[in-house]
Amino acid sequence: MNTTPTLNPFADPDEKPASNWMPILAAIILGIATSAGVLMWRLPSITASSNPASSHAPSTVKTRITSQSKDWDFYTTEIDNLVNELKTEREKYQKKAKDFDAVELRIATEKKELIRIRQEIEKMRAELTEKTTEMQGAEKSNVRNLSRTYSNMKPTQAVAIISEMTDANIVKILALMKPDVQARILAEMAKTPDPAISAGSGNATLAPRAAQLSDQLRLFKQQQTN
Q1: DSSP 8-state class, residue 193
Q2: DSSP-derived 3-state class of residue 74
Q3: Distance CA 57, CA 133 (A)
């Protein structure tokens, strides 16, 4: 009778070999025990995750469930801070925009006021120019009448009157006279005593003033010609 050789060299030849189902049974028991141990080790964490109310760990994530679309929106603390910063910046921008609008409105008002003032100044300038032209026309008319009047007087009488005037006015009157009339009046002025100089002085006539008037009259005629 043939016997199945065993791997144990020290085994008794007459001993019956062990059955093959024993190792399989041991492996099954070991697997069940391992699974049970892992399950018992993870049981607290599974229980805590399935019951959020019993968890004491602080949560930094807020969730919002949309029942219709079943979308999940996550809001973290950083996003909340960014949203607050954006709101603050928007408020600052709106305030600056209002300030800018106020400044723009003030500038527009001041511009309108400046335009109004400029129009008034231009109107006053036009009126002043018109009045100046009228005055100049009236003055020319008066000077022409005076020149005609003094031309019809005797030289002694004309000198007595015009010698009390300023040199500028005398030149304007003489400029409208005929040359021979001018000559007679200036000659008479040169012989007329100067009341501002004492009688004992050697040169007590209006001759120096007559010479000045003659020179000014020449320059005045040149200006009128140019």
Answers
A1: B
A2: strand
A3: 99
DSSP assignment of 6-40 equals PS-TTS-TTSPPPPTHHHHHHHHHHHHHHHHHHHH
List the one residue out of 156, 148, 206, 199 whose CA is nearest residue 178. 148
Question: Is 173's pLDDT higher than 80?
Answer: yes
The Cα-based distances of 32 to 19, 28, 45 in angstroms read 22, 6, 21
Strands (E), the chain: 62-65, 72-75
Taking a C-beta distance cutoff of 8 angstroms, is the pair 129, 161 a contact?
A: no
pLDDT tens column, 62-87: 444 444 444 445 557 888 888 888 88
| Cβ atoms of residues 131 and 177 within 8 Å | no
d(CA 183, CA 172): 15
Closest by alpha carbon to 155, among 179, 195, 196, 183? 183
Q: What is the pLDDT of residue 114?
A: 93
User: pLDDT tens, 113-159?
Assistant: 999 999 999 999 888 888 888 777 888 888 899 999 999 999 999 99
69-88 in b/e form (b: 16+ CB < 10 A) is eeeeeeeeeeeeeeeeeeee
How confident is the model over 20-38, as pLDDT tens digits? 677 777 778 877 877 766 6
* Whole-prediction pTM: 0.43
Rg of the chain (C-alpha set): 64
Structure tokens at 38: 């892992």
